[in-house]
Amino acid sequence: MQTPLKQVIYVSKKTDSSSDSLTDIYDISQKNNSESGISGCLLIGSDSYLQLLEGPDSAVEKLYSRIKMDSRHKKVKKLFEQHIEEKSFSSWSMKFAPFNNIEWGNKKFDAGKFQNISAAAAIKVFKSIEEMIG
Length: 134
Prior knowledge:
Elements: E1 5-14, H1 19-36, E2 39-44, E3 48-56, H2 57-69, E4 73-84, E5 95-98, H3 107-110, H4 119-133
Parallel strand pairs: 2-5
Antiparallel strand pairs: 1-3, 1-4, 2-3
């Protein structure tokens, strides 16, 4: 029987915008996520992160719990969660995408401020990225 897969989208406020912090997040994500079967996409905004995580149900929940406790994030808010049949970003242990490469159609999001994004808008963003790479 196949392990149940889960997809979670969350938004958080950045506490550290330094390139060292982003490098740490990237390096740790590359190692730990591939070992745990997690993939996804992290959008790095000017003051916040918007991230889609996907993988085995328990691994995604464990990672999301760690992110909520991580000092590089504050005001972590889960926007969306669902069980999935297959991953959208299976080839990416974690893809970092700059927010300004995406057509947002919203001035706040254009400025990389994701804190008030709706679940529907976040889903739409990641569907667009999936189609771009598809």
